[in-house]
């Protein structure tokens, strides 16, 4: 066992000892200090700021229909289900991890760790326990901000580092509470950066690491060798629920923006560019004379948006934001989401083969026109039981779609005229009985005219669908 440990230490030493002219020298450790290389000082400094997050929620259980039958209720009454060991409610417990990021008791964790919880308990590494409350959540990034109630003055906190400075091969530590066994530290390297094919949030640019991450680590810290927080561990790739060396963390630039906006405004607020497009494929790159298939080609610019004001045009290829290379459309969304409202950003683009730089003033997506969210009466064919709204940039940002003018279907009741008519959430209502629908007012006017035959068209996934129903 000692032989294996020495081999491990030698390997670490070889990684960190530079040779002539910056090359890595291959040699054995030359002192007791080199033999005893350890992450312990970093762990002692950072682990106290990583907490366990325990949640409780009351789950309503479905009572078997047998006990709802009037015949059986005559004999067993309303307590029949309890008599047979079938309570209507039960307590569901879950656990995760979190990171104290401010000494006054502000904790960052994953939204999925605390979603639906009725009670939240935060347990420090020294076993002190505190109740906590939710300050705000952001489902789109899977982040949540908690506040420890009656937080003591001596709380440790981790500083947010610069995840953009990470490189593949850098050493990192993952700290959390896997499987509820207690606080655990694992080490590994950064396997990849800007991973965009991880479908656990709307902004897909994750740090990938081979440090062991398991269930219960969610919301815990990914720490760099200088002891700063570089990511919030959030997901793993696994076939059986255990670690296979592929874990993902939300980078701190995203964490910082969500944290600051939730503390300031109670919700996540992201900068709005008002220009959308598609990733540059190899075919597009060849057609435009680009060396590599990188960047985003603009196919829409919203009128009056910061992008239009800065001079961005349809056909431009966006290649960097504030000097950070744009890999594809997902990467552009991430870069924009890490920018601070009220500041400006320098965007590099190519237009007709020429390089240009424009400065974009960053603002919140506007609530114009007013969304005017409306629930259509259940008795109103053909869209009764649907919730509709005017799509504006603010609503589009919340839904994670490109803004455009029109009326969008938000929700449908389970049994409704709208569902029978074939409507689906996300549909744009274009025409009803020959009348163009530009806003909620147009839709209400069209539905106010009784008719036994309804013809309408909606846009779904970029396709126009026409339907005709009789009542």
Shape: globular
Number of strands: 25
CATH class of the largest domain: Mainly Beta
What does the oligomeric state look like here?
single chain
Spatial separation of the terminal alpha carbons: 80 Å
Q: State the helix count.
A: 13
What is the third-level CATH name, the topology of the largest domain? Thrombin, subunit H
Gyration radius over CA: 27 Å
Summarize the main sheet. Answer: 7 strands, antiparallel
* Helix percent band: 10-25%
Number of domains: 4
| Content of β-strand | 25-35%
What does this structure look like?
- This protein is α+β, with helices and mostly antiparallel strands and 471 residues long.
- The chain folds into 4 domains: 2-37, no CATH class; 40-269, Thrombin, subunit H; 275-361, Pdz3 Domain, CATH 2.30.42.10; 374-470, Pdz3 Domain, CATH 2.30.42.
- It has 13 helices and 25 strands.
- The chain has helices spanning 2-16, 32-35, 40-46, 70-76, 80-83, 111-114, 252-265, 282-288, 306-310, 329-337, 393-399, 417-420, 440-447; strands spanning 50-60, 89-102, 106-110, 119-123, 129-138, 143-148, 171-176, 184-195, 206-209, 221-224, 229-236, 247-251, 275-279, 296-301, 317-321, 324-325, 344-351, 354-361, 374-375, 386-390, 407-412, 428-432, 435-436, 453-460, 463-470.
- The strands form 4 sheets. Strands 19, 20, 21, 22, 23, 24 and 25 form a 7-stranded antiparallel beta sheet that branches. Strands 1-2-3-6-5-4 form a 6-stranded antiparallel β-barrel. It has a 6-stranded antiparallel barrel with strand order 7-8-9-12-11-10.
- Strand 24 (453-460) and strand 25 (463-470) form a beta hairpin.
- The longest helix has 15 residues, at 2-16.
- The chain is globular and about 85 Å long.
- The protein starts with a helix and ends with a strand.
């Amino acid at each position: 066992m000692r032989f294996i440990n020495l081999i491990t230490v030698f390997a670490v030493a070889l990684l960190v000892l530079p040779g002539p002219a910056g090359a890595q020298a291959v040699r054995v450790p030359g002192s007791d200090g080199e033999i005893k290389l350890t992450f312990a000082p970093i762990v002692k400094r950072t682990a106290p700021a990583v907490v366990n997050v325990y949640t409780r929620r009351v789950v309503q259980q479905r009572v078997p229909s047998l006990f709802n039958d009037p015949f059986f209720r005559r004999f067993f009454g309303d307590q029949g289900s309890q008599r047979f060991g079938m309570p209507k409610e039960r307590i569901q417990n879950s656990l995760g991890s979190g990171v104290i990021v401010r000494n006054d008791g502000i904790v960052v964790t994953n939204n999925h760790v605390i979603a639906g919880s009725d009670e939240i308990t935060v347990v420090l590494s020294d076993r002190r326990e505190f109740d906590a409350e939710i300050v705000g959540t952001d489902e789109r990034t899977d982040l949540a901000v908690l506040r420890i109630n009656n937080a003591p003055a001596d709380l440790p906190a981790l500083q947010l580092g610069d995840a953009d400075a990470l490189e593949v091969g850098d050493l990192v530590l993952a700290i959390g509470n896997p499987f509820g066994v207690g606080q655990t530290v694992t080490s590994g390297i950064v396997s990849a950066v800007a991973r965009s094919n991880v479908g656990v949030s709307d902004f897909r640019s994750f740090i990938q690491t081979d440090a062991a991450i398991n269930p219960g680590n969610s919301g815990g810290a990914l720490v760099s060798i200088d002891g700063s927080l570089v990511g919030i561990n959030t997901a793993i790739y696994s076939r059986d629920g255990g670690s296979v060396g592929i874990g993902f963390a939300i980078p701190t630039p995203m964490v910082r923006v969500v944290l600051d906006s939730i503390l300031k405004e109670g919700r996540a607020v992201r900068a709005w560019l008002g220009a959308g497009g598609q990733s540059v494929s190899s075919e597009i790159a060849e057609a435009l004379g680009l060396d590599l298939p990188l960047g985003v080609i603009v196919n829409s610019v919203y009128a009056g948006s910061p992008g239009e004001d800065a001079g961005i045009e349809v056909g431009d290829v966006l290649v960097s934001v504030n000097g950070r290379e744009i890999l594809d459309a997902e990467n552009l969304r991430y870069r924009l989401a890490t920018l601070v409202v009220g500041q400006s950003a320098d965007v590099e683009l190519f237009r007709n083969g020429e390089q240009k730089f424009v400065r974009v003033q960053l603002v919140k997506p506007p609530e114009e026109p007013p969304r005017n969210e409306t629930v259509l009466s259940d008795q109103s064919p053909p869209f009764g039981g649907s919730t509709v709204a005017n799509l504006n940039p603010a609503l589009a940002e919340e839904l994670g779609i490109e803004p455009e003018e029109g009326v969008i279907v938000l929700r449908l009741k389970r049994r409704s005229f709208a569902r029978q008519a074939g409507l689906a959430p996300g549909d744009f209502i274009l025409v009803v009985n020959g009348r163009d629908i530009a806003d909620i007012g147009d839709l209400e006017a069209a539905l106010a005219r009784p008719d036994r035959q309804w013809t309408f068209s909606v846009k779904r996934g970029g396709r126009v669908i026409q339907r005709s129903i009789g009542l």
